[in-house]
Amino acid sequence: MSKNTICLWYQQDAEEAAHFYARTFPDSRVGRVLRAPDNFPGGRAGHVLTVEFTVCGIACFGLNGGDMFKQSEAFSFQIATDDQAETDRYWNAIVGNGGFESACGWCKDRWGLSWQITPRVLTDAMAAGGEVAQRAFAAMMTMQKIDVAAIRAAVRG
Fold first, then answer.
1. How many angstroms separate the Cα of 101 from the Cα of each of 35, 37, 130, 131?
2. pTM for the full model?
3. Which phi and psi (to 5°) does residue 57 adopt?
4. E strand or H helix at 121
5. What is the pLDDT of residues 116-145, one digit of tens each?
6. Could you read off the pLDDT of 56-110 as tens digits, one per residue?
7. Of 62, 78, 86, 91, which has the highest C-beta tally within 10 A?
8. What is the DSSP string of 10-42?
9. Which domains does the chain have, with CATH numbers?
């Protein structure tokens, strides 16, 4: 386990979520799966308690803690994409696996975890500032999944 690890709370599906992330994103894998040595509130001995996994090189720790806490948009993974095909691939994987769409490049997976699928053309336009950023921002505000061609058109003016 890394010295600093993101701990994500799941009701009971941390291992399933970790395997989905490992199949979906590059530089992702599932590590140790630890099982409860005894019964605990909301679980039994032998049930998966924690899962170590990596998402795009970021160390994570999934905790099956029950329904006491819920995921929120206060935490999200931001995945930078290079083109529309990559944007579509990640977006469709998350939404098509029981997740749902939100606005401005945000979506949630079936476990309630928020994802920002963000093409680099958008972040580059925002970093440019001025009218370019204003046009890109205005275009983004009308979208759910980011449309790379529409952002490029907005950047051109």
1. 33, 38, 29, 28
2. 0.94
3. 85, -5
4. helix 120-128
5. 999 999 999 999 999 999 999 999 999 999
6. 999 999 999 988 899 999 999 999 999 999 999 999 999 999 999 999 999 999 9
7. 62
8. ESS-HHHHHHHHHHHSTT-EEEEEEE-SS-BTT
9. 1-68 (3.10.180.10), 71-157 (3.10.180.10)
